[in-house]
Amino acid sequence: MNHASTQVGQGFASMIDAVRRIGAEVAARHAADVDDRARFPAETVTALREARLLSAAVPEELGGAGCGMVELAQLCAALAQSCGSSGMVLAMHYIQLACLARHARESRFFRGYLREVVEQQYLLASMTSEVGTYGDMRSSICAVERDGARAVLKKDATTGSYCAHADAILATARRDRDAAASDQVLVLARREDFKLATTTSWDTLGMRGTCSPGFRLEWAGREDHIVPGSFADSSAQTMVPYSHVLWSSVWWGIAADAAARAANYVRGQARQAPGTVPPTATRLAELSAQLQAMRHNWLATAQAFDAIDSDPSSQEELLGMGWALRLNNLKVACSEAAPQIVHRALQIVGILGYKNDSPFSLGRQYRDALSASLMISNDRIAAKSASLLLVLKDAP
Ligand SMILES: Cc1cc2nc3c(=O)[nH]c(=O)nc-3n(C[C@H](O)[C@H](O)[C@H](O)COP(=O)(O)OP(=O)(O)OC[C@H]3O[C@@H](n4cnc5c(N)ncnc54)[C@H](O)[C@@H]3O)c2cc1C
After folding, report:
1. Tens digits of per-residue pLDDT, 152-204?
2. What structural domains does the chain harbor?
3. Tens digit of each residue's pLDDT (9 = 90 or more) over 227-268
4. Measuring from atom 14 of ligand 1, which residue has the nearest CA?
């Protein structure tokens, strides 16, 4: 294989350095404009593509970097410190890649497709939401219709991040016309096989650069572009763990950006009165403790996931109630912590954080962080955890 078309041997240290550089030199430079105009962070994604970072989640045997959960989370967190939307786009892309890498590897078509992702640095989007399912990712109304080796799908999604900019979309659907709402599969819709019509706008408080309006998808492709097995398994073993860990790392990145701005502000105050500790420094210390706890939460979960993943006999653990509860707790805790941390940073910085045109401005971080509790509603997650806790005796 042409070495230029693989990522094997690209060490993680050079990858995280590249993401930090792209964050500082590209994403941060365009973040305000991306937010202002609710436009796709195209420059950042181009830079990620050029640095061959879009295939970090592809296994080494297929030419990718084979990054585990801890590494992917660190890459997303690093980028989110410069632009929350860019960090979230990268996280959502890695989540889709992980679903293919972990559940479709036995398929000849998907092995070839994953190699193509490495060569072409494709960007993958997700379409789990649907008009009429009210935020329940585990049920679909739309269904795949098969005709021999061909298949078609029409889906009306409420929200589809950067679908208009993606090379492919992974969409959930009922397995066939007669299947129950929860009997779902994942369909890989490649750009050349789908038509997309925008159905709603994306003029939101935050995460404006994710460009996530509603879309009507019409796909006609080959039957072997449907991920083998059931979405129930890929959801529990991959989509949910990757989503909750990588999203949490992105929210931490946004909070860390706010904390860094507050810290700069406090240091500036200290320089103005040498030999004294400004009162805001105490608030900064409290904020730093909360930020650290948040980081430990997603990092520990990512490490636990990688440990399970490295042991083939432990895979069933990912389907257990204890693990589901742990992930729910992580999502709820981090999505609540992020806006709290940004809020505390704002109290430290004061009016300069409230202004949109100051170097200490915190408006974008605040608005971005507010999406966290809505992105799969915390109430919906808490209701599931409540049911689990009725039967689960050993809390994680
Ligand atoms: C930034 C961002 C990017 C996104 N990107 C994508 C994407 O790329 N692809 C995609 O498919 N989707 C995407 N989504 C949508 C996401 O997957 C969810 O579908 C969506 O956030 C849920 O919308 P909802 O609030 O209408 O749903 P619901 O979960 O139905 O919530 C509606 C209301 O009902 C309440 N509620 C729900 N269940 C319960 C319960 N059991 N108990 C009490 N109250 C309850 C909630 O609190 C809320 O007030 C994105 C969302 C965001 C915010």
Report:
1. 999 999 999 999 999 999 999 999 999 999 999 999 999 999 999 999 999 99
2. 3-122 (1.10.540.10), 126-225 (2.40.110.10), 231-391 (1.20.140.10)
3. 999 999 999 999 999 999 999 999 999 999 999 999 999 999
4. 159
Q: In this structure, are residues 162 and 211 in contact, taking their beta carbons and an 8 Å threshold?
A: yes
Residues 98-150 have pLDDT tens digits of 999 999 999 999 999 999 999 999 999 999 999 999 989 999 999 999 999 99
Distance 140 CA to ligand 1 centre (A): 14
In this structure, are residues 73 and 197 in contact, taking their beta carbons and an 8 Å threshold?
Answer: no
Atom of ligand 1 minimally distant from the CA of 377: 29
Ordered DSSP codes for 278-318: -THHHHHHHHHHHHHHHHHHHHHHHHHHHHHHT-GGGGGGG
Say yes or no: CB of residue 169 within 6 Å of ligand 1. Answer: no
Q: What is the pTM of this model?
A: 0.96
The preferred substitution site among 377, 378, 379, 387 for testing ligand 1, maximizing ligand atoms within 8 Å of CB, is 377
